[in-house]
Amino acid sequence: MKLYYNPVSSYSQKVMMALYEKECPFEPMIVNLMDEAARAEYKKVFPLGKVPFLDVPEKSWQVPESSIIIEYIDRHYPGGTKLIPDDPDLARQVRMRDRMLDLYVNEPMGKIFFDGRRPEGSRDPLGVTQARERLNNMYAVLDNALAKDTWAMGDLFSMADCAAAPALQYARMVHPFENHKHLTAYLGRLTERPSFARVLKEAAPYFAVAFGGK
Ligand SMILES: N[C@@H](CCC(=O)N[C@@H](CS)C(=O)NCC(=O)O)C(=O)O
Fold this sequence. Notes:
- This protein is α+β, with helices and mostly antiparallel strands.
- The chain has 2 domains: 2-82 and 197-211, Glutaredoxin; 88-193, Glutathione S-transferase Yfyf (Class Pi), Chain A, domain 2.
- The chain is 59% helix and 7% strand.
- The protein has 8 helices and 4 strands.
- The protein has helices at residues 10-22, 36-42, 66-76, 88-115, 125-146, 159-174, 181-192, 194-211, and strands at residues 2-5, 27-30, 53-56, 61-64.
- Strands 2-1-3-4 form a 4-stranded mixed beta sheet, covered by helices on one side.
- Helix 1 (10-22) packs antiparallel against helix 8 (194-211), helix 4 (88-115) packs antiparallel against helix 5 (125-146) and helix 5 (125-146) crosses helix 7 (181-192).
- The longest helix is centred in the middle third of the chain and has 28 residues, at 88-115.
- The chain is globular, with a radius of gyration of 17 Å.
- The two termini are 33 Å apart.
- Bound molecules: glutathione.
- Glutathione (GSH) binds next to helix 1 and helix 3.
């Protein structure tokens, strides 16, 4: 199966982390989102042009959306870490945390990050203020939960931690959270996790190209 992704994309990193947790083989297909021609070519594969995207030719299945890709690999590749529990109530709680981290950490982080790269005059200060408020709320909620929990689901490492790692790693840069010590310690645990350490190491050569050395 082929994974279309970009090493610096937060949603791609979420799926890469999951694949490494599962020790799941795949064919890497890097998409250069900064290059118009490469984007146009990629839209022939997935018309929405979003990464990550999983292509499973042997089943004629095409799987967009990071959480759905992780659902797919967790179901079809039993090895490695179980990322979504079999118990339906626990699974629902993992999915809820995954959604919260995507929608209320990763999305506002992206809003702040990309707004800062827009030219003067086309920025959205109100949207950025709202994104910062959303992050403040989520930082407080997460810090409170992580005062007693090791991972997003207590003792259980899960898909929600794959969502959290890249989202928090980037959020830390655009809207720091050092004053939340439990959240800071959690990001420390995530970056020490071999799966995410590998994701960051593989992304490093691409950071300067994508973000102009920032
Ligand atoms: N909800 C999607 C979000 C994917 C997404 O927004 N990916 C970004 C990169 S992190 C992207 O493809 N951006 C390019 C674009 O929007 O055209 C998921 O979970 O996979």
